[in-house]
Design brief:
Blueprint: E1 4-8, E2 12-17, E3 21-22, H1 23-28, H2 34-42, E4 46-48, E5 51-52, E6 58-59, E7 64-68, E8 85-88, E9 92-97, H3 114-125, E10 142-148, H4 154-162, E11 167-175, E12 182-184, E13 188-190, E14 198-200, E15 209-217, E16 220-227, H5 234-241, E17 264-273, E18 278-283
Parallel strand pairs: 10-17
Antiparallel strand pairs: 1-2, 2-7, 3-6, 4-5, 4-7, 8-9, 9-10, 11-16, 11-17, 12-15, 13-14, 15-16, 17-18
Length: 298
């Protein structure tokens, strides 16, 4: 239910109330936790018609509510590597991750990740906010990663991702000729014989992937893949199970001389923009190593 129209004002969000509600209903509609809502009240970050409000405050149509951002000083080491920025506005930073780079620290590599690159970008732009990716990609996968710049919206975006309201579309070169649409709904569980792998398992988590062929080349096909769930290695294991493993997949396929990493690229994000109140599409071109010219011969 939409309670208000929202305007971003650099240090706060301005809400013009459309429906009668309590202030806590408004915050809860953005999936803020009880702890977070309490922090906004305790830090006097919420004003109704210019006055600080309590949790029980009633809002009527025509009221204006300003929610000021809580200050954070969380930082990680900066890494001065240029970002390939595909989209940026007040709420989002969406970048194209190169293959072989991890999104966030794995406990060992704490300073050479995509997050560290974003931290450097924020630093040189004078942006004092935490680095918060909404999702991640495997190390060998290239493509789009979304970051949120207004922490107030982080719970909402986490909810949207969980409810599959952020659509992620991938491109993959796979082994063999695929002539028609593939629909894959096998459940996925952990492989108890290999901690790095997942496997098809009847008692695993439900997973749903579709793939359509875009172009056929020499003993391989470029597929456009959509995932309705977000299981670990979902596209990789589904395609391998259906006898079309992704080229050079080190876990579920075999090496292919035409590409020296997993031939998977996060090509497109489609999502509802909470500030612009419209659907948004962001794409990024495949890197050169996935260009069709490399796959016309063995």
């Amino acid at each position: 239910m939409k309670f208000a129209e929202i305007t971003y004002c650099k240090t706060y969000l301005h809400f013009y109330i459309l429906k009668k509600c309590q202030i806590d209903d408004l915050l809860h509609s953005f999936y803020l936790s009880k702890k977070t809502r309490y922090a906004y009240y305790q830090n006097h970050c919420i004003q109704k018609n210019g006055n600080i409000v309590k949790q029980s405050a009633l809002l009527n149509p025509g009221d204006v509510v300003d929610i000021f951002f809580m200050q954070t000083h969380e930082t990680i080491p900066s890494w001065n590597v240029p970002l390939d920025i595909c989209y940026e506005d007040d709420l989002f930073l969406i970048v194209s991750k190169p293959a072989f780079m991890i999104v966030h620290s794995d406990g060992v590599n704490t300073s050479h990740t995509l997050n560290n690159c974003v931290q450097h970008y924020y630093h040189i732009k004078g942006i004092n906010i935490p680095v918060r990716p909404i999702h991640r990609l495997d190390q060998d996968t290239s493509g789009l990663v979304m970051y949120v710049k207004i922490m107030f919206f982080l719970p909402l975006l986490d909810h949207m991702l969980q409810e599959k309201e952020i659509e992620r579309i991938y491109l993959a070169w796979v082994s063999g000729d695929v002539s028609g649409k593939l629909t894959m709904d096998q459940s996925i569980g952990k492989d108890r014989h290999n901690a790095k792998k997942m496997r098809i398992h009847p008692h695993g988590l439900h997973a749903y992937t579709t793939a359509v062929p875009i172009q056929n080349a020499k003993n391989c096909t470029l597929l456009k893949c959509r995932i309705k769930t977000g299981r670990t290695h979902q596209i990789r294991i589904h395609l391998a199970y259906h006898s079309h493993p992704i080229l050079s997949d080190p876990l579920y396929g075999t090496k292919d001389a035409r590409i020296h990493r997993l031939a998977l690229h996060a090509w497109k994000l489609r999502f509802y923009h909470p500030l612009l109140e419209c659907m948004q599409d962001v794409t990024c071109d495949c890197p050169d190593d996935m260009d069709v010219k490399h796959f016309l011969t063995d």
